[in-house]
Design a protein that fits this description.
Blueprint (H helix, E strand, L loop, with lengths): L3 E12 L2 E13 L4 E5 L6 H8 L7 E6 L2 E2 L12 E4 L11 H11 L4 H14 L15 H13 L5 E4 L8 H16 L3 E6 L10 E6 L2 E3 L24
Parallel strand pairs: 3-8, 3-9, 6-7, 7-8
Antiparallel strand pairs: 1-2, 1-4, 4-5, 9-10
Helix pairs in contact: 2-3, 2-4, 3-4
Length: 241
């Protein structure tokens, strides 16, 4: 069984007085070491799909399995315990330092402060913003804030990393570097699931799928035999659009 499995997932939302089915019988399997991108237009449901996959929202029907366990079963918690969700669009307290922001999830789990500080610094170094550790969150540009969001997910040691639109608002010159960071995390064995609204995050994905009218289109299962179906661009080309 794949590391993360969504089977026949349905999810509806109210938009004004209308009930809209944003996910309709969506199935998706992701293996360790894969970078999977889901493209969709605004309000296509891609953010909802990622929230359901991470266990933040339950599906109306269908199931989500992480390591074979139903993530919505009573007493099951995967968010922060195997699955990391990176809140790239969420605002953080502007006066909090970067390292305090990254270590906050560890402190909430009662990790000793010196250990939390060390792990947070290691996560910042992994995403290459350790020199910003004493800056406040309000001092960061968009690309730096995305890297810090990734560090917040990494610091908990996830097997799956879920990131909603990691290149949104990032300067064109910085987008490739963000995508290459995510690619490198997948190459280290983490399953990475990202959403994308403009195509800039698709070039290095192993699989790129499209979400439209509630339906997920594309290769929903890994390549047979563990072989990666790579969409990676040739060296020296750009993913910026």
């Amino acid at each position: 069984m794949s590391l993360l499995v969504l089977s026949d997932v349905c999810k509806a939302q109210m938009r004004g007085s209308r009930r809209v089915e944003v996910l309709r019988d969506v199935s998706l399997e992701i293996e360790a070491g894969e970078l999977v991108a889901v493209w969709g237009r605004r309000r296509s449901g891609r953010s909802t799909l990622l929230s359901v996959a991470a266990g933040i929202e339950p599906p109306d029907s269908g199931e989500v399995l992480f390591e074979g366990r139903d993530v919505n079963a009573r007493g099951t918690r995967i968010l922060g315990d195997g699955v990391g969700y990176c809140y790239t669009g969420a605002s953080a307290p502007g006066g909090r330092t970067v390292i305090d922001h990254v270590r906050s999830g560890l402190l909430a789990r009662r990790v000793a402060e010196p250990v939390a500080h060390s792990l947070a610094y290691d996560a910042l170094r992994r995403v290459e913003v350790e020199r910003s550790n004493e800056l406040t969150m309000g001092d960061l540009d968009t690309a730096e804030a995305v890297r810090v969001a990734v560090a917040c997910g990494l610091v908990l040691g996830p097997r799956v990393l879920v990131i909603d639109e990691p290149t949104k608002g990032v300067d064109l010159l910085e987008r490739d570097a963000i995508v290459l960071l995510l690619r490198s995390l997948a190459d280290e064995g983490i399953a990475v699931l990202v959403s994308d609204g403009d195509g800039s995050g698709l070039a290095d994905a192993d699989r790129a799928l499209t979400l439209s009218d509630g339906e997920l289109r594309g290769k929903s299962t890994p390549a047979p035999g563990g072989e990666v179906l790579s969409l990676r661009r040739p060296a020296g080309t750009s993913s910026a659009v």
